[in-house]
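Troubleshooting entry. The earlier prediction with iron/sulfur cluster gave an output that would not parse, so I re-checked the input for stray whitespace and re-submitted. Clean input:
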Amino acid sequence: TYVVTDNCIRCKYMDCVEVCPVDCFYEGDNMLVIHPDECIDCGVCEPECPAEAIKPDTEPGLDKWLKINTEYAEKWPNITIKREGPADGKEHDGEEGKFEKYFS
Ligand code: SF4
Ligand code: F3S
C-alpha cells in the first residue's frame, strides 16, 4: 500500500483524491489518509502530491504512518473530490514536527 505521511498535515493539497482509481482517500481536519486494504498499489497518487507526502510503505521508517493511515481510514469520511485546501497550506509545506504540533 501507499501511505500519506507528515507533510500532508495542514498542506492538504488534495490533488491525490482526483487520481485514485479506487477512491481510497479519507479526510481528517488537517490531513488525508489512504485505506491500506483498499489501495491497489497503482502508485499514480505519489507524483501528484505537491508536498511529496505520499510514499510506498515499503520505504523504511514508515510503520508509524502505516498505523495512522490504517486507524484513521476507518474513522474519517471518504473523500473523492478535490476542494480548495487551507489558505495557509503553502506556509506549512516542509515544516518539521507537524504531527506533534497539529495532528487531530
Ligand atoms: Fe489510490 Fe493508487 Fe494511490 Fe493507492 S497508490 S492510494 S490506489 S492512487
Ligand atoms: Fe495531502 Fe498531498 Fe493529498 S498534501 S491531501 S497527500 S495531495
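This one parsed fine. The CA atoms of residues 3 and 55 lie 5 Å apart.
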